[in-house]
Amino acid sequence: MNDLIKEKTPLANxxxxxxxxxxxxxxQSEPRAQKNAAKLGDASIVNFVDDDWRTNEFDLTPKQQxxxxxxxxxxxxxxxxxxxxxxxxxxxxxIGRYYSRKLRSLKQEHLIVLALDTKLGIIRETVxxxxxxxxxxxxxxxxxxxxxxxxxxxxxxxxxxxxxxxxPSPADDKTTExxxxxxxxxxxxxxxxxVVGDDYYSYAENDNCALVANN
Length: 215
Hints:
Layout: H1 3-8, H2 16-25, H3 30-39, H4 44-49, H5 62-83, H6 92-103, E1 110-116, E2 122-130, H7 134-138, H8 141-150, E3 154-160, H9 170-186, E4 189-196, E5 200-202, H10 209-212
Parallel strand pairs: 3-4
Antiparallel strand pairs: 1-2, 1-3, 4-5
Helix pairs in contact: 2-3
């Protein structure tokens, strides 16, 4: 795109590739900026912010690297602040979409317990397992320990699928059944189990029997 036209074009009207190219032009020559923007593909902005790029391929100096890292961090913090579930705004869609964005770039599964108070306010987020959930799923003690330590009266279970496919697996169904049944005995309700990837899946929204039958 002609430089003069670029300067007069509102940023909102630029394509992802053009916007990223302009950003890189602040620290690199035009040919190199064009080449590096092209490396990130069609989802260039998403890849850039989510760290799916490799900075050593960009031939950046430490100072240039620091500048781009700051731009990325500002973007992440703004997104989190705008979309984070507020204290008393429990809702599967709100939580699902927020954590879909937050966990999208993780390379291994994370199992998270959200402890809620009697007004459905989220009072604590606890990562109870990473990668291997076998101990948590075979004995939900760790899950409810997190809820009890937070003083929660109910919980939401949440985990990510690094593949991006948010459809629950048979193992996810068994985990949901077990945790919901234990919660019923303990008096700490499992309100939902949310699986996130490129989108999200809510057991509660889908009336999944693995959750409903035990509540």
